[in-house]
Amino acid sequence: MKDFIMDIIKIATSGIFGILGILLGYFLSRNSTQKAVDMSFEKLNIIIDKQEFIRAANKFRNSFIKEIVELEKMGNNPPKESVYKVLFAARDRHKNAMIDFRYFLKGADLDKFNQAWIDFSGDDYENQNFKKSYQQYDVNENIENISEFALKKLAMKNIDKLLDFSRLENHKTI
User: Fold this and answer.
1) Cα(123)–Cα(59) distance, integer angstroms
2) What is the C-alpha separation between 30 and 82, in angstroms, rounded?
3) Which residues, 6+ apart, have CB-to-CB distance to 158 below 8 Å?
4) 72: buried, middle or exposed (CB in 10 Å: 19+, 13-18, 0-12)?
5) Phi and psi at residue 171, in whole multiples of 5°?
6) Handedness of CA 157, 160, 165, 171 (dihedral sign)
7) For 14, 69, 139, 172, which has the most beta carbons within 10 A of its beta carbon?
8) Are 59 and 100 in contact (CB under 8 A)?
9) Rounded to whole angstroms, how far apart are CA atoms 158 and 155?
10) 82 and 150 in contact (C-beta within 8 Å)?
11) First and final CA of the chain: distance in angstroms?
12) Cβ distance 70 to 86 under 8 Å?
């Protein structure tokens, strides 16, 4: 009988230690497993953010292709259509792409982008001021009497400045 009781005690003791081992393993691994899961989600979010940035940046760049081609076609010759008309016709397309894209810019980048947008379009999206849309490219509105060729160069410079923001390598936070 004594052996029987000793066997029960041994079984109970090993069972208790087994359960304690399981519980200890659970509590120790839970923290590291949670950290691993959190890191995986963080990496996944970075990848998704990067993909979304690339999608919005591509849409933003593509919204300017037609106008860049039109402006380049002008060359040094007197244009068939004014710089103002070329850009103003694309105003809504540019603005919609800009709204999607600016979501991905933060802090100083967003401030610089907003200024570049004002320089390009004359519109202050941040303050909802759309009274001067593309006026700087209108020969009739331009108080400095700048030629269409000079206005084309100004437009191309402002477009290039805007498109610099859409290059992934210019954003270390994404």
Assistant:
1) 20
2) 67
3) 116, 119, 120
4) exposed
5) -130, 105
6) negative
7) 139
8) yes
9) 5
10) no
11) 73
12) yes
Helix (H, G, I), strand (E, B) or coil at 129: strand
Round to whole Å and give the CA distance between 101 and 97: 6
List residues bridging with 129 in a β-sheet. 124
pLDDT by residue (tens digit) across 75-120?
776 666 788 888 989 989 999 999 999 888 888 888 999 999 989 9
Nearest CA-CA partner of 159 in 66, 77, 78: 66
Instruction: Retrieve residue 66's tokens.
Output: 């037609």
pTM of the model: 0.67
Q: Are 56 and 103 in contact (CB under 8 A)?
A: yes
Tokens representing residue 166 in the block:
């859409």
